[in-house]
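Can't paste images in this forum, so I'm doing it all in text. The chain is below; anyone willing to post the predicted structure tokens underneath?
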Amino acid sequence: MKFEERLSDRDAWSIGDGCSAGRVLDLLSTKTVFLVVRECFYGTTRFDDFVTRIGASAPAVSRALKQLKAAGVVAPVVYREPGSRARDEYRLTEAGEDLLPVFLSLMQWGDKHLQDGRPPLSFVEAGTGRSIQVRVVAEPAPETACDDIEIRLNPAWRRG
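Text version of the structure:
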């Protein structure tokens, strides 16, 4: 990447706290927060299931959900099982769904650089089985919706 001419003197300007990447990192500030988002993409909606699937403490998951709710990434939806009190499920909002490329980019990088070419999961287009990849492209480029992605167990994966 290179800067346009008026930004070429890096000492003459600063965006400081206005950096969007910095703000995203503030939001996704802990592993638990990010794993809650992952679990939302995987279809997890209930508090106890987040705790179990992430392996984090209930207070940590509670803080993560509050943080994501305050940022408009998840929204609570009330449900009630017969004979039980009303509880909240958590669903991704449009802003949460827009984190899909961020999530997939991190997964893709980890698959390539941290998994010795044998990641546990693969993400494919549900209708065709073609591998989903995140790339930097000029607009307009076709998008694949979250509902059109199938997650598969990678047969080459071996627990380490």
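The longest helix spans residues 100-114. The chain has a mean pLDDT of 92.
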